[in-house]
Design goal:
Elements lengths: L9 E5 L6 E5 L8 E5 L17 H11 L3 E8 L2 E9 L5 E4 L1 H4 L4 E6 L5 E10 L4 E5 L21 E6 L7 E15 L5 E8 L11 E3 L5 E10 L14 E9 H12 L28 E6 L5
Antiparallel strand pairs: 1-2, 1-16, 2-14, 3-16, 4-5, 4-7, 5-6, 6-9, 7-8, 8-9, 10-11, 10-13, 11-12, 12-15, 13-14, 14-15
C-alpha cells in the first residue's frame, strides 16, 4: 500500500481563534505516534530596512541554479511508501532531508534533478531532536547547494522553496520571511529553536526541501506548516495544505548537524537517532496555555 509521508498534522488551539488549524510536518507519511506539546511563538522583530527581490527574474535565476541539486526522496517501511524532498550538500553525494521523511525506512531511493535517474541511498545519520537526516548516494562532481547564514536573515527577505508537494516534483513557490525565532517540536518532542517562518507555499511532500534566499543559498530546511485541516491520528483522515504559514529549520542548525552526521556521531546504531516519545506521552508545558499544538502524524492514500 502506498502512502504519502505527510506533514505531521497538528491541531492548533488559540484562545481568540474561531476555528481550528493544524501544524504539520511537510512530508508525506504513514501514521506515527501522537503527542501533545505547547510551542513558544515569540514576537518577531526587525530593526533594519532590507531590500526585497521577489520578482520573476530572481525566482527563475534561483530555480535554475538550484533545481538540479534538489532530490525527490522515496522511503519504504513496513507502513508503506513515503515521499519527501532533499538537497545535495557535497559533490560526492551527501543529501540533507528531514528525519521524519526516512523514519523507519528499510529502503531509500533518490532522484536528483528534473532528469536524473532513481538510485539507492544510504542513511549516514539522523537526529530526531532536530528532525534532520543525512543520506549518501554514489556520485562525484555533483552540484551542492551552499548553506547561507540563517542568523543574517531578516523579516521581509525573499524566500524560494523547491520541493515535491503531493508528488509534483521540483515545484517552485515564493514568498518572504514572515518571522524569525519561532519554536517548533521535533518528532521526538524536542523544541527546535530559531526556526524561520515563511509564507512561501509548503505542502505535504515538501519536507526536507531547501528554503533559499535570493542568492540561491539555503537558509532553512522546510519541515512543518500550519494547515487549515487536520488528518486523524489513526491515518484514516486526510491532511490540509498550505495557508501561508510554514516553518524551516535554520541553516546554521543544519550546518552543525551535517558536521556531526558526516563524522559518524549520528550513524545508525549510535544511539543518537530515531528517539521517539511513547504514543500516549504528553510533553511538559513550554509556553502559555493559549497556544497548544497537538501532533497526530496523519496519512493519506
Amino acid at each position: 500500500m502506498k502512502t504519502s509521508r505527510t506533514i505531521a498534522t497538528v491541531a492548533v488551539v488559540v484562545a481568540s481563534a474561531v476555528g481550528g488549524a493544524a501544524l504539520a510536518h511537510a512530508s508525506q507519511s504513514p501514521s506515527a505516534p501522537t503527542h501533545t506539546a505547547r510551542v513558544a511563538v515569540p514576537a518577531a522583530t526587525s530593526s533594519t530596512t532590507r531590500p526585497i527581490a521577489d520578482n520573476r527574474s530572481t525566482a527563475k535565476r534561483v530555480y535554475d541554479g538550484a533545481a538540479d541539486s534538489v532530490a525527490y526522496i522515496s522511503s519504504t517501511s513496513i507502513q508503506g511508501q513515503a515521499t519527501g524532498t532533499g538537497f545535495v550538500v557535497s559533490a560526492d553525494g551527501l543529501i540533507v532531508t528531514n528525519a521524519h521523511v526516512v523514519d523507519g525506512a528499510q529502503q531509500i531511493t533518490v532522484k536528483l534533478g528534473t532528469g536524473g535517474q532513481t538510485q539507492a541511498a544510504q542513511l549516514v545519520g539522523a537526529d530526531a531532536s532536530r528532525d534532520l537526516a543525512l543520506l549518501k548516494v554514489d556520485g562525484s562532481g555533483l552540484k551542492a547547494l551552499k548553506l547561507g547564514d540563517s542568523d543574517a536573515v531578516g523579516v521581509g527577505d525573499s524566500t524560494f522553496a523547491i520541493g515535491n508537494p503531493y508528488g509534483l516534483d521540483h515545484t517552485l513557490t515564493t514568498g518572504v520571511v514572515s518571522a524569525l525565532h519561532r519554536e517548533i517540536q521535533a518528532p521526538d518532542g524536542t523544541t527546535i529553536s530559531d526556526v524561520i517562518q515563511t509564507d512561501a507555499a509548503i505542502n505535504p511532500g515538501n519536507s526536507g526541501g531547501p528554503l533559499l534566499n535570493d542568492k540561491g543559498e539555503v537558509i532553512g530546511v522546510n519541515s512543518q506548516i500550519v494547515s487549515s485541516s487536520a488528518g486523524s491520528a489513526d491515518g484514516s483522515g486526510g491532511q490540509g495544505g498550505s495557508v501561508g504559514i510554514g516553518f524551516s529549520i535554520p541553516s546554521n542548525t543544519v550546518r552543525s548537524f551535517i558536521g556531526q552526521a558526516a563524522g559518524g556521531a549520528l550513524s545508525p546504531g549510535s544511539g543518537r537517532q530515531d528517539q521517539q516519545v511513547a504514543p500516549d506521552q504528553t510533553l511538559p508545558d513550554q509556553t502559555a496555555p493559549d497556544q497548544q499544538y497537538a501532533d497526530p502524524y496523519a496519512a493519506i492514500n
